[in-house]
Amino acid sequence: MYGRCVHFSCPGCRSTRMRADQLCCRLNRIVAVQSNSFPDMSLRRKILLVVFGLALGAVVTGGVAGLTLWYVRVGAAPFLAEAPQLDALLYRGLWLVGAVTGALALGAALAGRWLLVSFRQSLQVLQDAVEQVRTGRLDAQVSVNPDDELRRLAQALNRMTTTLSQQTVSRSYLQAVLDSMAELLFVVDADGRVRRANAAAAQALGRSASALRGTALDDHFDADPLASSGEGTVECTLTPTDGPERPVLVSRSALERADATQGTLVCVAQDISERKAAEEKLRRSLEEKEVLLREIHHRVKNNLQVISSLLNAQARDVESPAVEDRFTETQDRIRSMASIHEQLYQTDDLSRIEFDAYLEGLLDDLFRSHRTAHIGRTLEADAQPLSVDQAIPAGLIVNELVTNALEHAFPEGRSGTVAVTFHADEGTARLTVADDGRGADGLGGNGSLGLRLVRGLTRQLRGTFSTDLDDGVTVTIAFPTNPSS
């Protein structure tokens, strides 16, 4: 009879329902007062009975009066023959009593009919207002007639509808809100069948909301959105009867209301076609950029190799061993940078270098180019990737220190070992190059080009530089793996 609230368990709605119940009780009391005498009779029959009684009383009274006059006229007939005026008077009296009796009976009938019609009209106004409330028009009002006996009932109904309109969301208003949603909404029962769908869902599936009612939810998707237990979000494809398929993101939640059926779910499907298209466009763009970056690294590596080959050809025409050594050192530096670009070209991650694998290849190149079979090597490196901005200077540092050890730490064929270690822990990397050669004599002066390069590259890494000359030479570089922090 009354509009339903979205949350009927709220205090305002409980108060509204109490007022509605009070109004119904008042209506029942009005009917009960009229029904005390004849509990099995309707109000219409009671009014007809009263009117019939009044009409019957008028007829009986008129009949008695007419019969009395007739008896008087019959009994006084011998005397009335000598008084014709008195006989005419009694005759007119009989007609007058009959006419008055008929008029009273007709008036009672007309009054009864008018009473029924007017009372029915008053009740019809109240019934129309209650019907409007039942269909969702919670702001329905009854025009109050100050002379109407049902005025208090009409005022109570107006107060109730005012309270309902202020504290209750009507069904039509709620349906309008649901139909204005851009997302697809389905109310699904415990058996997985659609109980209600909004306008967006009906339009997307090409069917009316009433046609969707009772259908299985999984019939409209490539996979059952309710297959996984519990609440959450699943991605699937909407499969309408007519029209293209579209990817959607379906979120599910239990409908928790006092009058909700156990297991009822609310499923909201959001069209993610545009997002998928944007992701695909971004993925293709990234792939194109990765291909371009790999091509750049490949060309840089080739250019560096060309430069190294030019230096090698130039060094063949040099007669001075010292100058030839300078050419060789420069080639090693170029080779260390070319190795990084070669690894970047071959790896999946174009922003980071697997530094342990890079060190392995770098040491192979250095030991092979210097032909130092009498010198051993060890490598201990953590699997810690470095960014390109850190890998290049760190690689050049290793190149300088290892080259210095191979050229100066083991003179005259002396055997020994060059050890390279790389460890990273808690945001700090520690790079160490050690040899067990002749110590400080193999390090070279502080003004040498190699040491100047190492110190400059250490500053570029925002690190620290330290040396230990006990039992050979040990150089340690410590730098943060995330310098921006």
Would you kindly provide a written description of the structure presented here, covering whatever features stand out?
This protein is of the alpha+beta class and 485 residues long. It is 56% helix and 16% strand. It has helices at residues 11-35, 43-75, 77-80, 84-134, 151-167, 171-179, 199-205, 209-212, 273-316, 321-346, 355-370, 388-409, 440-443, 449-460, and strands at residues 184-188, 194-197, 232-238, 246-254, 265-271, 352-354, 375-381, 385-387, 416-425, 428-435, 464-468, 473-480. The strands form three sheets. The chain has a five-stranded antiparallel β-sheet. The radius of gyration is 53 Å and the shape is rod-shaped.
Layout of strands and helices, then pairs:
Elements lengths: L10 H25 L7 H33 L1 H4 L3 H51 L16 H17 L3 H9 L4 E5 L5 E4 L1 H7 L3 H4 L19 E7 L7 E9 L10 E7 L1 H44 L4 H26 L5 E3 H16 L4 E7 L3 E3 H22 L6 E10 L2 E8 L4 H4 L5 H12 L3 E5 L4 E8 L5
Helix pairs in contact: 1-5, 2-4, 9-10, 10-11, 10-12, 11-12, 12-14
Structural class: alpha+beta
Q: H/E order of the elements?
A: HHHHHHEEHHEEEHHEHEEHEEHHEE
Tally of individual helices: 14
Give the strand content. Answer: 15-25%
Low-confidence stretches: 1-17, 30-39
| Mean of pLDDT | 77
User: How far is the first residue's CA from the last residue's CA?
Assistant: 67 Å
Largest sheet: 5 strands, antiparallel
Number of strands: 12
Backbone CA Rg: 53 Å
Domain HAMP: 117-169
Transmembrane segments: 47-72, 92-116
Protein name: histidine kinase
Catalytic activity: ATP + protein L-histidine = ADP + protein N-phospho-L-histidine
Task: Provide keyphrases for this structure.
alpha+beta, 485 residues, single chain, 4 domains, rod-shaped, 16% strand, Beta-Lactamase
